[in-house]
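ok trying again, last paste got cut off:
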Amino acid sequence: MDTVFALGLVAGMVAVVMLLHAQTRDAHMRALAALGDGLTNPQLHREHSAVTGLRGGIAIRHELTTHGAGSDSEPFTHVEVATGGAPLSLHVVPHRSGDAGHIARGEMIDISVGDAAFDDMYRVEGGPEDVVTKLLSPRLIETMVAGRRCELETVSGIEGPRLRLAIQGWVDTASTAQELWDIMIDARMRLERAHAALDAEVPLAMTGSPYRPEPDDAPLREARAARAAEASRVEDLCQQRVARQAEVTWVVLAIMVGGMLAAALMASH
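nice, full thing came through this time. structure:
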């Protein structure tokens, strides 16, 4: 009877959790449907608690999600815009205790943007650096230091590279959501303008006969390739560090499991 009661209790708890999850998902979808009124051609995605659409001709994705798992789970909102193919690697995250050591060993970079509060709170790892510093607008910086924990990163997906702002809490009111959308659209436009400005700085080269010179775009292509390579180097640096951290985690877990098995064997003899 005790076993049956325990199994029934577990089943009941699972049913309650599933019911609460479904109710939360339903509430999210109602809120997202209302947010869709501020977008052109809005589409709801129930499986991801997200709404997508166009704002000012630029694709927006607004998702209500969580970071972490179990008791460490926290509500977060993701606002994403497509980068339009412009070369960019960006990872703006809160400073962590081990950052100084990674930076000293050349395993991490940290770009200063000149805002003391922002630089104290966040590590800016990105490239091309000349583009990153122009992408971070005063409104975006103000939003990220306002109190809620934030992350700003480039992410990949089947829809292509995107720039994602993750902000703590579920943003489900139209006024706040539209403010975040406009900030991210501005970041997308700043990204394009920064690359265009760098293109304009490349001297025009001429080729051919002195009597019939023709413009040569080789210097421009080289400059663009150099910016793309810088973005790739930064992204590779980040991925290598993540891989090393994963290896350390697996080693620690293996040692813990090995110790537990050894202790169990010793206790059995």
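cool. Residues 114 and 133 are 9 Å apart (CA to CA). The two ends are 34 Å apart (CA to CA).
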